[in-house]
Amino acid sequence: MVLLGTIVNGLAIIIGSLIGTKLRNIPEKVKVTVMQAIALAVIIIGVGMGLKSENFLIVIGSLAIGAVLGERWDLEDKLNRLGKWLELKTGAKEQGSFAKGFVTATLIYVVGAMAIVGALDSGLRNDHAVLYTKSMLDGFSAILFTSTLGIGVLFSAFPVIIYQGTIAVLATQITQFVPQEIMDAFIVEMTATGGVMILAIGLNILGVTKIRVANLLPAILVVAVIVSLLSLI
User: Fold this and answer.
1) Cystine design at 167: which of 119, 158, 216, 233 (Cβ 3.0–4.6 Å)?
2) How far apart are CA 30 and CA 24, in angstroms?
3) Cβ–Cβ contacts within 10 Å for residue 41, how many?
């Protein structure tokens, strides 16, 4: 089943979030320290991913063009509005933090090599090992995120399912059109570009910056275009 890994990943986030709701009575200073620790770990992950680039000019160009597109489409605001709409529909009590939890968790779970590589493996080889591993990581982090950011984290499971599921389904046909060397180059530069975004998420969690990371998401598509164009040269 092509979507098995994606479904397991979504369920892991939901289950982790439900467990996290039972840990809401943690003292505030403990929550702050836990979030700071998570932020530092996210930053290290982002740095590690960013350093994997074999041509950092692709990363820079993709982020610059992606930022222009993201700001034009105002993706960050749209995600926040979706979070606030879900907040109203669910009657969540933590006003304001619901949208923050939804947006932060969505970006962390969607922006990364494991999401794309895992979905590609599911579609190309019906191998869900990467997404199973991601499920364990996402499920555990969902416990921590929900205990500090609120129930909005749970709803990040749905963008994850849609995003990874779409990639997995498209991957069943992708080998007919995309040579393996181009796919490999895309994954490397996409990983580095996603790493920069994850670094920004970590800095945002720490409160050091207020980078509109969602507005950088089009950079992933730009990477694909640039890598494809360079392969023709």
Assistant:
1) 119
2) 11
3) 12
